[in-house]
Amino acid sequence: MASIFPWRRKNTLPPNHPASHPLATSMPTPLVDLSKRVGEARALILDLLTELIGPVTLDYDFHREWNGCWKARVEISGAANGRLEFTLLETTEGALLALPRPLLERWRTETGIRASDGSRWSIDDNGHLVAFPATLSRPLQPRAPG
Question: Tens of pLDDT along 43-81?
C-alpha cells in the first residue's frame, strides 16, 4: 500500500525540511576529519591573517568541539597582537574554510573570508553563513598602522 505522505518514501524529505532547501546542499559543513588537513589549515589561517592585517607570527592550538567540529585557537603576534578562534568548515567542493570568531565587522561586510578554493564567505546580519558577493576588484591590502 502506498503512503499518503510522499516524503516518507526512501531518501525523500518533507518539503519544509531545512535540508530540502536548495542552498542547504551548497553551504559549508563543519570539518570533522582534520587528520590529513592540519598543514592546509595552518597555511590557510596564516594566508588569511596576512591578507587581512599584514605579516604575522602564529601559534596554533587545534581542538575538537563536543559536536565533532574542529576549531583552532590562534595566538597572533607581528603586525597585530591578539587571539582569535577559527571554526574549520569544508565546502561542498572540498575546500577548507577557516571562519574567525569573532568575525570583525570590516571583514564581515567589506572583504569576506577566503576559503582555500578562492570562494569568499561571511556572516549575514542574522548570524547565518552566506556566500560573500564577488565584488572585490582587487586583492585586499593590509591597512597601515595607526
Answer: 999 999 998 888 999 999 999 998 888 999 999 998 889
Give domain status of residue 53, yes or no: yes
52 lies in a domain? yes
Domain that holds residue 65: 26-131
Beta strands 96-101 and 113-114 are: unpaired
In a domain, 136, yes or no: no
Residues 98-128 have pLDDT tens digits of: 999 888 888 888 889 999 999 999 998 888 8
| The C-alpha cell that represents 134 in the structure block | 564577488
Q: Say if 75 falls within a structural domain.
A: yes
Cβ contacts of 31-36, under 8 Å, gap ≥ 24: 31/69, 31/70, 31/88, 31/89, 31/90, 31/96, 32/68, 32/69, 32/70, 34/62, 34/64, 34/70, 34/88
Domain count for the chain, please give it.
Answer: 1
